[in-house]
Amino acid sequence: MEATNYSNFRRNLKHYMSQVNEDAEPLLVTAKDDDDNVVVMSKHDFDAIEETISISELEKCKDMNTTWTKDDIINALVEDGIEPTNVNIAKVITAEFIQNFKDRIIELGNEMISWQVSDVFKEKGE
């Protein structure tokens, strides 16, 4: 990855914007403090990365293991501020709860696909 300092980037902004778009290579813009460094990339490349992440997230959802141990259930309840009593644990381990969970994951996946399709047509002005 090519790098340039902030001052040079600022002076040659138009050149660098064209370069990252034409070369499809990101550019590292450095600052005095490394915590202020940034990477500049084309919008096309950024969109491709976001799409890859979305697809990856869908794959994770599809492959999720919905078999929870009692400790997993207790931790989930505690994280949500729900007391992990036997009654509350029993509510989570029902077949109905697990099926509703699976259905919601599928629904979320379908919504994500719909958003991606919609974005494609918005970009093309259709």
Structural features, described:
The protein is mostly helical and 126 residues long. Helices cover 66% and strands 9% of the residues. It has six helices and three strands. The chain has helices spanning 6-11, 13-23, 43-62, 70-79, 86-92, 95-123; strands at 2-5, 27-30, 38-40. A hairpin with a 7-residue loop joins β2 (27-30) and β3 (38-40). α3 packs antiparallel against α6. It starts with a strand and ends with a helix.
Tell me the β content.
5-15%
Shape field: elongated
Number of strands: 3
User: What is the topology, as strand order, of the major beta sheet?
Assistant: 1-2-3
Structural class: mainly alpha
Oligomer: single chain
Major beta-sheet overview: 3 strands, mixed
Brief synopsis:
It is built from 6 helices and 3 strands.
Key features?
single chain, 126 residues, mainly alpha, three-stranded mixed β-sheet, 3 strands, 66% helix, 9% strand
